[in-house]
Amino acid sequence: MRGSAAQKRIHKAALELFAEKGTAAVTVSELAAAAGVVRGTIYKNLASPERLFETIAAQLAEDMDLRVASSYTGAEDPAMRLAIGIRLYVRRAHEEPHWGRFLVQFAMTNKSLREIWAGPPVQDLVRGIESKRYDIQPGQVAAALAVIAGSTLSAIVLVLDGQRTWRDAGSDVAALVLRALGLDAAEATTLATAPLPDLAEGI
């Protein structure tokens, strides 16, 4: 995440508050208390406290898109890239529960967060269709993205609620999504259980 140390601290506290409350309505006083700073520090480090939610949502979407794309080193197959991407999202939600809960709460309703699904996932879907890797039609891209997004978020919920491990939830969902796109069961399972690269560092 870009910004000064104070801004990063404030943004981290804000993300946790948004995730816990399930709403974008957070007061400056609540934010200052959560970040362990005085109110003046909030105003000094935020150009617009009223737009903090949108700022964080946009940064989160951009950051995760870039990090996942940077983690694909050596993976050219769109199906492999999709399996990696889904599992990286689920693993990060396990490692950073507030990040995961923020995503679950707002990823389908906030315009900035919906950009997560409109970057590399769309490009890889199109490549997969054009190369006949996927057995779907170009007109089904939007529906396929809905399946990918909904399945990934549902896997995150299972992990955050302690119903599945991140490894099992991530691999199972990745395999099922690949099967929905036309891969056979054996190959889908192989791709969904292959060694997972580390998530690239953020900006």
What report would you give on this structure?
The mean pLDDT is 91. This protein is mostly helical and 203 residues long. It has two domains: 5-47, Orthogonal Bundle (Arc Repressor Mutant, subunit A); 54-192, Orthogonal Bundle (Tetracycline Repressor, domain 2). The protein has eleven helices and no strands. The chain is 67% helix and 0% strand. Helix 5 (78-95) runs antiparallel to helix 8 (120-130), helix 5 (78-95) packs parallel to helix 9 (141-160) and helix 10 (166-180) runs antiparallel to helix 11.
Number of strands: 0
Estimate the helix proportion, in percent: 55-70%
Largest sheet: none
By CATH's scheme, which homologous superfamily of the largest domain applies? Answer: Tetracycline Repressor, domain 2
Q: Strand percentage, roughly?
A: under 5%
User: C-alpha Rg, in Å?
Assistant: 18 Å
Termini gap: 5 Å
CATH fold description of the largest domain: Tetracycline Repressor, domain 2
Unreliably modeled segments? none
Helix count? 11
GO molecular function: DNA binding
InterPro entries: Homeodomain-like_sf, HTH-type_Tx_Regulator, HTH_TetR, TetR_C_40
Protein name: TetR/AcrR family transcriptional regulator
Organism: Oleomonas cavernae
Task: Give structural attributes.
203 residues; Arc Repressor Mutant, subunit A
Topology diagram in text:
Layout: H1 5-21, H2 28-35, H3 39-45, H4 52-70, H5 78-95, H6 97-106, H7 111-114, H8 120-130, H9 141-160, H10 166-180, H11 185-192
Helix pairs in contact: 1-2, 1-6, 5-6, 5-8, 5-9, 5-10, 6-9, 9-10, 10-11
Organism: Oleomonas cavernae
Keywords: DNA-binding, Membrane, Transmembrane, Transmembrane helix
Domain HTH tetR-type: 4-64
